[in-house]
């Protein structure tokens, strides 16, 4: 698999956090950021699939992502009681 080098700017504090975690996990900054990007993309795709399915199922309900997240939050609060 070929790779491409990119330049990314981070605030000092965020870069320090990245470096701290990379060092703690004995990996390079690049390895940590690649994994973070993969996880982010996978999670986004999963949520997009979930919302696509709920969009089809909700039909005329016109639920938004915010509506679903609020309902999940209400459910979790009720479950804790």
The pLDDT mean sits at 87
Computed over alpha carbons, the radius of gyration is: 19 Å
How many discrete structural domains?
A: 1
- SS-derived structural category: mainly alpha
Beta-strand proportion: under 5%
β-strand number:
0
Instruction: Give the helix tally.
Output: 3
Helix percentage range: over 70%
Task: Give me the strand/helix succession.
Answer: HHH
Cα end-to-end separation? 51 Å
What general form does the structure show? elongated
Summarize the biggest pleated sheet.
none
In the predicted model, the low-confidence regions spanning at least 5 consecutive residues are none
Could you list some keywords that capture this structure?
81 residues; mainly alpha; 3 helices
Please provide a written account of the structure.
By secondary structure, this protein is mainly alpha-helical. The chain has one domain. 73% of the residues lie in helices and 0% in strands. α1 packs across α2. The longest helix is centred in the middle third of the chain and has 30 residues. The protein is elongated. The mean pLDDT is 87.
């Amino acid at each position: 698999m070929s790779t491409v080098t990119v330049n990314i700017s981070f605030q000092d504090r965020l870069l320090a956090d990245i470096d701290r975690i990379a060092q703690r996990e004995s990996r390079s900054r690049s390895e940590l950021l690649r994994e973070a990007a993969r996880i982010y993309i996978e999670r986004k795709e999963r949520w997009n699939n979930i919302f696509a399915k709920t969009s089809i199922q909700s039909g005329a309900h016109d639920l938004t992502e915010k509506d679903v997240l609020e309902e999940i939050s209400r459910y979790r609060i009720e479950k804790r009681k």
